[in-house]
Amino acid sequence: xxxxxxxxxxxxxxxxxxxxxxxxxxxxxxxxxxxxxxxxxxxxxxxxxxxxxxxxxxxxxxxxxxxxxxxxxxxxxxxxxxxxxxxxxxxxxxxxxxxxxxxxxxxxxxxxxxxxxxxxxxxxxxxxxxxxxxxxxxxxxxxxxxxxxxxxxxxxxxxxxxxxxxxxxxxxxxxxxxxxxxxxxxxxxxxxxxxxxxxxxxxxxxxxxxxxxxxxxxxxxxxxxxxxxxxxxxxxxxxxxxxxxxxxxxxxxxxxxxxxxxxxxxxxxxxxxxxxxxxxxxxxxxxxxxxxxxxxxxxxxxxxxxxxxxxxxxxxxxxxxxxxxxxxxxxxx
Length: 333
Fold this sequence. Notes:
The chain is an alpha+beta fold. The chain has 3 domains: about 5-115; about 120-170, no CATH class; about 185-330, Alpha-macroglobulin, receptor-binding domain (Immunoglobulin-like), CATH 2.60.40. The chain has 5 helices and 18 strands. The strands form 5 sheets. Strands 11-12-13-9-16-17 form a 6-stranded antiparallel sheet, with no helix packed on it. The chain has a 5-stranded antiparallel sheet with strand order 7-6-8-14-10, with no helix packed on it. Strands 4-3-5 form a 3-stranded antiparallel sheet, with no helix packed on it. Strand 1 and strand 2 form a beta hairpin. Helix 1 (about 5-15) runs parallel beside helix 3 (about 60-70). The longest helix has 17 residues, at about 75-90.
């Protein structure tokens, strides 16, 4: 009989507690064979997704797996990999219920290495200089987590600071982010990739006797006032995320066909689309792992040479997860 992840975890625990260790070991072996392990996301199951059913709750299921593997096998490496997934899930998603939160905290404290005892987790060297929060003015280290933040003005930034070395000490997991902010012409910006990846293309749309035809706009495309332009944005996400904002800029010489802001549904993804004076915005409450294509039409209403801007996307829950497309120039005769 086919059982879900949650049911398999409960069966393994129950059978182990009634001394049927042979069957519980088989269930655990099956779970391990069907799992995925990555260096960044830890150990998880592809089918561990959310649904309305009580037994399809990703956080509670992962917490149960930590308890099962800890009680039956007690393999520290496996348990720590399972705990990593829980923490990485929290990085880009909310634990939406009190039950999910309590189960996750219980699992993190129950088994595996003692990550809370690590007081000096990471050494950070920027341009050969060690960053010591205790010696920096106006920098406070958060109790318990060790989180701190520091910044440099433009005059303080040197080329050698592009070399960053991070040394992890002790057990547990740690992560951070480094931002470099500067000014650049929009059409000279190159694409940037993180777990979120964006590609943006413009197409000239024409209605012919055989139907709609589109062709990619290049420097040789003869654009005229009145032409229809289709914007196509390809978004790739390597993990589930919540609370994500995508902003697509457009050239000053183009106006959107659809100016209404509304909630939309396409390809299993729901989002709120909002049209502004210089951009079109997409707000995602929940962005599942996958590849998504967004399209909308513009009308060319002015001649000239314009910067079409870039498309940017950022997780509001974890700002370090951000990305943007490359800048493009558009010429209208």
